[in-house]
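Write out the 3D structure for:
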Amino acid sequence: LIKDKNNIKSLRLDPLNDYCIIRINEIRFNNTICEDFMNTNAIYKEDNLYYFNTDDSQIYINLPLNITIDVFSIEVQYLKIGKDTITDISNTFFKMLNEKEQNIQKLNQELENRDKSI
């Protein structure tokens, strides 16, 4: 029970005390969807997926000024839990880096072709 809910400026949620990949489907307060008020200590975020490479995952929600929280809810899906998550996070980063490297090579080739045509 929160005694002084009129003066709450932010909330901290710890979704799990383990490495994890989660999907946050929705956060609501007073039946209003919470958007653009959230920060996390996730190493990487893609859309509503959060990759936590720590066993102390944290979500920080900064609330709009002058709001009283009567009802708060969060819908989270746990996609991966435990130390194996680090492998999944590493694989995701390697995949992204590989895609970026391929894109750089493609752009460099386009530049070379344009240079030759000039």
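The chain has one helix and eight strands.
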